[in-house]
Amino acid sequence: MSFEHLPDGLGIGVPAPRLTWTLPPGCGFQEAYELELDRDGTIHRTGRVQGADQILVAWPGEPLASRERVAVRVRVWSPAAAEPSAWSEPGVVEAGLLEPADWRAVPVGAGWDEDPEAARRPARVRRDFRLERPVSRARLYVSAHGLYEVEINGRRVGDEALAPGWTVYPHRLRYRTHDVTGHLTEGANTIGAWLGDGWYRGKYGFDGGTRNIYGTDQALIAQLEITHDDGTTVVVATDGTWTAAPGPVLTSGLYEGETYDARLHDPGRSAPGRAESGDREPARTGSRDPATLVAPSGPPVRCTQDVPPVAVTRLDDGRHLLDFGQNLVGRLRVTVDGPEGAEITIRHAEVLQDGEPATRPLREAYATDTLILSGGGPLTWEPRFTLHGFRHAEITGWPGELTPESVTARVHHTDMRRTGWFECSDPMINRLHENVVWSMRGNFVDIPTDCPQRDERLGWTGDIQVFAPTASFLYDCAGMLDSWLTDVGLEQLPDGTIPWYVPVIPGEPMWTPIQPGAAWGDVATLTPWTLYQRFGDIALLRRHYPMARAWVDLVERLAGPSRLWDTGFQLGDWLDPAAPPDDPAAGRTDRYLVATAYFAHSARHLALSAHELGETRDAERYGALAEEVTEAFRRRYVTDSGRMTSDSPTAYALALVFGLLAPQQRRTAGDRLARLVLADDARIATGFVGTPLICDALTDTGHLDVAYRLLTQTECPSWLYPVTMGVTTVWERWDSMRPDGTLNPGGMTSFNHYALGAVADWLHRIVGGVTATAPGYREMVFRPRPGGGISWARTRHDTPYGTASLAWEATGTGLIVQAEVPDGCRATAELPGCPPVRLGPGRHVLDSAKLAASAA
Questions:
Q1: What DSSP assignment string belongs to 75-135?
Q2: Gap between the Cα atoms of 647 and 673, Å rounded
Q3: Distance of CA 672 to the CA centre of its chain
Q4: How far is Cα 28 from Cα 78, in angstroms, rounded to an integer?
Q5: What crossing angle do the helices spanning 427-443 and 704-712 adopt, rounded to 10°?
Q6: Do the strands 368-372 and 257-261 form a parallel or antiparallel pair, or are they unpaired?
Q7: Verdict on whether the full-model pTM lies above 0.90
Q8: In the beta sheet, which residues pair with residue 846?
Q9: Are 455 and 206 in contact (CB under 8 A)?
Q10: CA distances from 448 to 292, 413, 468, 472, 539 (A)
Q11: Which active-site residues does the annotation give?
Q12: pLDDT (tens digit per residue) in 32-62
């Protein structure tokens, strides 16, 4: 039993959370279910409810009140069983603070004056209190202006990083609920917190960044609610009784890194029984509208893996150069002993240039952490409020010998559940797929970012629009992306314009003021639809429908009666490899062809969404609009024979995959696309827009062999060229590093960027053969399309209903296939040369040669 899209039910922010369960193994199908709610000993049962629903089922009882805790379990009836299943293990859901009136806490921070234009030393805040009786239950509801880490009685609360994350703070600030019962004791207690600037007031953004984007304060918002064994309660909330003091973190920034002076650390700062030191003073209180405090809809950022160095090299000047063998996002944890005042400096870089860390691509993200030792013995330390994108680290000032055991890289990202796996007989393609996974991990840091290392790290809308199908296969990202899409809607301009990136921060002169742009703005229509298809959440589709409709209505006005979006600023096929390094939008494809194609595609998907939501008039209206735009597209950009006015791979890919050609034009267009690809020896000639589509366009028009030629090309530009260079993530540019080992001279040169990795969706569906044909994979097709010399492939996806998998191996006569269909689902196997085979839940072994023979 699970609730909404959350890993657990503690602190849920909706009073009627939807319920999801998986069926007992071997059950087959559910024909009815019964739910039981245990509300503190009061049992409510629904009785037998006829139906197969088991994903995001409506809450069956009275809504939760704030703080209410309910145990929920389910049993099901299957067609073949006379009796219901056993009851499931109960899942426990507990509401957070659902009403603004529940909050007493106010923001508290440094009590001293600060220069808002300078880097400010972060504060630590604390409060002592006594408890006169044993504790039976305690909850901490906590957030911050900036970033926080909380301690109670000297013990860390939770394990999340960069909390509370980045939302559109004026409208939504997340708080998290922690069970801290075990942290408290009868008698003296202390709660304290470390604070950091983060996105709230830190320097962030382009060209030196902007400080204080959301405010100048740095403050904790915390409410500790304690229930004693006799039922009495105590509330310890941030207010004027708290004290503040400068901490041992001297400076901290998401781009800059962190400086920590261990000589200034007071280990008893959050421990009880310590006399107040003279450097403490009353904390300064601020204000926060409690109506803007919201519970999370997805998991937080956490450390998910430790990676040891694979090489430690001592340079002649005493520096140490570390290679972790993997480009990752996180920070170093070091264990070191040295004299008081010794200063250790750590710089980070993704790649080396002439044996030195290549920091030019970081631009003004200095990515430097500094540790000043106290001389008090061995110290284990890692920064608190920064993350870096790196494979290599340079350490200066290390006292004595630096051994690999002294340093580990700690990988951080939103702690989503992994749901998708793929491998095949080609090790280079496997490395490409792993690179896609690592780039997703590095760029899903509370929001879907564009790159994790340089002075940017923004939630670019177009990038996730093209990558969402891949992302939603690899990880359960529904809750995280639902939250981010909520912020996209909040940042949408009154006229319907979708920003280039969300949350919005200053981006003059190119990105501010905000202008509507195709492919980027279309995240409003296409990404909610993708998430609905992959996770089966129609409420998510409904929630973001007004945003999608406002976007399409805007483009309709911009296009006017001609139905051609052929005016305004457009990025086109961004980062087409033919574009010069200093002008990534100057690709081979007419930017307005791209814009009009996306107009038709978004209008069609809006009509599909309206149909699913029962909005019949809207479905008819936007379906008709999509057809009008399609006709206009053909008249302007397609000849009668099917040739495009922009004779480029992206133009053909768009027209074919988006369904913009007449049936008689598709053959010509597909053949021309294949010829263009082969004329350039199957090197990539597409950017952000064309790359996710080109393999499907070739596959759908009978040129699967050419798609595999593209996939397996190793010359630059290609997907496998970076693999030949030994890289471990996807690049932003096809030639971020040139064949001679030099870096691309453009100002945008990231070595960790997921957009061009969107080809992994084609790997999952075409090479791996697993495709959803109904929301949430309730219906799916197993349709592998072997080629490219690949002799076997294995694909597995944990759908909302359970695990679906397909493993195929080529034999001398066909394919041997092992398929797994989750309980509650159906599949159709469509093997090459064979009639379709319907499959129910369970494991199946199919031999294509035998199937073909029996059909004959």
A1: EEE-TT-SSPPPPPPPEEEEE---SGGG-----EE-SS---TTS--PPEEEEEEEEE-S-E
A2: 9
A3: 36
A4: 7
A5: 70
A6: parallel
A7: yes
A8: 817
A9: yes
A10: 22, 10, 10, 12, 21
A11: 456, 732
A12: 999 999 999 999 999 999 999 999 999 999 9
**Beta-sheet strands, E only, within 358-398:** 368-372, 379-381, 388-396
Q: Compute the C-alpha angle 74/76/80, nearest 5°.
A: 165
Q: What share of the chain is helix, strand, coil (3-state, %, to 5)?
A: 25, 30, 45
In terms of Cα–Cα distance, which of 234, 148, 235, 159 is closest to 192? 148
Task: Please say whether the beta carbons of 254 and 136 come within 8 A.
Answer: no
Q: What are the pLDDT digits (tens) for 64-83?
A: 999 999 999 999 999 988 89
Extract the tokens encoding 661. 């050609």
pLDDT at residue 274, as a whole number: 65
- Asked whether 482 and 536 are in contact (CB, 8 A), the reply is no
Distances (CA, A) of 226 to 10, 132, 269: 16, 11, 22
Give residue 278's pLDDT band: very low, low, confident or very high (50, 70, 90). Answer: low
Residue at 518: amino acid letter? A
For residues 198 and 465, what is the distance between their CA atoms, to the nearest angstrom?
Answer: 26
Q: How far apart are CA 637 and CA 646, in angstroms?
A: 7
Query: Which residue matches tokens 């540790």?
Result: 371
Classify the phi-psi angles of 178: left when phi > 0, otherwise alpha if psi is within -120 to 50, otherwise beta. beta
222-256: b (≥16 Cβ within 10 Å) or e: bbbbbbbeeeeebebbbeeebbbbbbbbbbbbbbb
How confident is the model over 323-334, as a mean pLDDT? 98
Residue 838: both structure tokens together: 């319907």
What SS3 string covers 286-345?
CCCCHHHEECCCCCCEEEEEEECCCEEEECCCCCEEEEEEEEEEEEEEEEECCCCCCEEE
Residue with more model confidence, 351 or 279: 351
For residue range 428-441, list pLDDT tens digits in order: 999 999 999 999 99
